[in-house]
């Protein structure tokens, strides 16, 4: 019987979805080692078919049980099964719980990166979770964290490292603490930033940087402050001067902010970092309370700061409200652990 070289087997396996790959790990030790290797996860993540499989993760917090029920994969065919049309979400079928992660109080879903979701509860407990592989990691607490702090999550491509960024105001300065998944430690960034960052639990990540709306005492209108995950430093950009909005989102790879004058308009930075490229465009159903993300070719997802999601079908002009916190992610094999635990 002829055997295929491992290189050909790997090329075949890379084209399988995550669920199938998890089954394939049980075939033999060689396949287990191959699929479990971080380089395989990277190669699988970079394939176009992987990036195209966008899923919707919904968090429902049950106050009586004090745990988090997470889960839901959505496609254009079954999107109507999410919620019953009255905002009650009665048809949701949760198939996984994060109660073992010991998350307390209300759970905030910060954002997703390479298939990893970053969750933070109101007590400051942080969990990285991969809903595709069902792996999660409760991160060590930040001993230097102030009482009031905002978090962000992203990837440093130069160091091949996932980072949690904590931002707070301390003695009129914006203070930043960074947790590196690779070193598994918190450390304070010495570079100070004097603008007052207006943080929300939902930050905007684009081009390797985390973005917020900020207030600079020397500028009479809001500005955009970005924290670069690689350089670990701030940079600042202006917003349209006659339009005051404190919401940022990313649509089509561009920074966007709702118009402060017209709820059916938004400003789009067509060329990143070029302040003159802000362009006013139509944006039906988008206002200051929501951030918009594409779910697929037909659906748009709006998420606001409250536990409310709006799914909008642009082809049929239909929408559905869901009283849950949600965000998008891609299916991946990326592990929420430091490299030494591989």
Automatic annotation (TrEMBL):
It comes from Vitis rotundifolia (Muscadine grape). Residues 1-44 form the F-box domain. The lineage of its organism: Eukaryota, Viridiplantae, Streptophyta, Embryophyta, Tracheophyta. This is F-box domain-containing protein. InterPro entries: F-box-assoc_dom_typ1, F-box-assoc_interact_dom, F-box-like_dom_sf, F-box_dom, SCF_F-box_component. SMART domains: FBOX. It holds the Pfam family FBA_1. SUPFAM superfamilies: F-box domain. PANTHER family: BNACNNG10540D PROTEIN, F-BOX PROTEIN CPR30-LIKE.
């Amino acid at each position: 019987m002829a055997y295929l070289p491992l290189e050909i087997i790997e090329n075949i396996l890379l084209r399988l979805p995550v669920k199938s790959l998890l089954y394939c790990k049980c075939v033999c030790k060689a396949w287990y080692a191959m699929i479990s290797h971080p380089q395989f996860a990277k190669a699988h993540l970079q394939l176009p078919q992987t990036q195209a499989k966008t899923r919707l993760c919904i968090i429902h917090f049950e106050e009586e049980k004090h745990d988090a029920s997470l889960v839901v994969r959505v496609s254009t065919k079954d999107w109507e099964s999410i919620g019953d049309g009255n905002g009650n979400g009665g048809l949701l079928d949760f198939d996984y719980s994060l109660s073992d992660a010991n998350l307390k109080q209300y759970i905030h879903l910060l954002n997703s990166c390479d298939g990893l979701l970053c969750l933070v509860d109101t007590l400051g407990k942080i969990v990285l979770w991969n809903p595709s592989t069902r792996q999660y990691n409760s991160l060590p607490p930040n001993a230097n964290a102030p009482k009031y702090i905002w978090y962000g999550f992203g990837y440093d491509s130069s160091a091949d490292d996932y980072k949690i960024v904590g931002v707070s105001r301390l003695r009129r300065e914006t203070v930043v603490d960074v947790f590196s998944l690779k070193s598994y430690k918190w450390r304070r960034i010495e570079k100070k930033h004097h603008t007052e960052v207006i943080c929300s639990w939902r930050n905007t990540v684009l081009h390797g940087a985390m973005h917020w709306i900020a207030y600079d005492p020397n500028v009479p209108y809001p500005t955009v402050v970005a924290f670069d995950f690689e350089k670990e430093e701030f940079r600042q950009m202006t917003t349209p001067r006659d339009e005051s909005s404190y919401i940022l989102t990313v649509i089509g790879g561009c920074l966007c902010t709702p118009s402060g004058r017209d709820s059916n308009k938004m400003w789009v930075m067509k060329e990143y970092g070029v302040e003159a490229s802000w362009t006013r465009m139509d944006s039906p159903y988008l206002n200051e309370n929501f951030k918009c993300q594409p779910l697929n070719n037909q659906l748009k997802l709006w998420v606001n700061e409250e536990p409310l999601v709006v799914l909008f079908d642009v082809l049929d002009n239909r929408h559905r409200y869901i009283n849950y916190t949600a965000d998008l992610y891609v299916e991946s094999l990326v592990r929420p652990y430091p490299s030494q635990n591989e």
